[in-house]
Write a structure and sequence with these properties.
- This protein has 261 residues and is mainly α.
- The protein has one domain.
- Helix content is 78%, strand content 0%.
- Helix 1 runs parallel beside helix 6 (190-214), helix 2 (43-94) runs antiparallel to helix 5 (163-184) and helix 3 packs antiparallel against helix 8.
- The mean pLDDT is 86.
Length: 261
Amino acid sequence: MPSTELLYSVSSVTIAVVLFVAIVVFNELGFRAGRFVQANTDDEVKAMTGSIQGSILGLLALLLGFTFSMSMQRFDARSMAVIDEANAIGTTMLRVKLLPDEYRQQASDLLHQYVVLRAEVGVIDLTHEAERAAYNERSVAVQNQLWDIVTKATDADPRPVTTGAFLNSLNDMIDAQGKRNAILQQHVPETILLLLFFVFVVNGAMMGYSSGLSGKRMTVPIVLVSLLITLIVFTIIDLDRPKRGLIQVDQSVMQSLESAT
């Protein structure tokens, strides 16, 4: 579960700020180390240091692209899961009219409760596990009641074009909920994020070391680069954290379905 990992319970703002400070601090340490060995370093070693720094930047670009792609794919998957579940619920609501008369109103009321539950749980932070578990239990209870109704309705009207059609849509609705819950648990592995942070800090130290070897401090460029790196990392983490950050999955399709019921 995401909540068992080290970074997941820490806010993305805190991670970004700590990373920015770490890059600046290690840049300063690298600069001082470069100044300390400057007198004993020839031009060939300085050129090799620049090549190493370029290699680290290339690795950093590769990791950034890979990690951003992973987080964006998961964000898109969560967005599509909401749409798919809303469509499955909407189809089930329409097919209520195919049930025998004595079961229609009860099934319609239960579907309304279900939509409300799914809309409310859609905005609850994933770290609130107890609250989400309670909503999921209530959702499963409503699903079971609907399944009992369709079982009785099948006995009364076994035709596949009426009760059978509602049964199929109900099954799709239950599957859509399970799929959405599973997708919510998928995120960028923490090992990759930690590796990304480590490379960022090492790159900051190497930039400082290279500046120290040249004897010229580049404060403004270093701060700007560190700030840009921090913003990119913040965006990656924010995309990877459903219902927690500034970038949220659009829940309007589920909310509109709630108002329609």
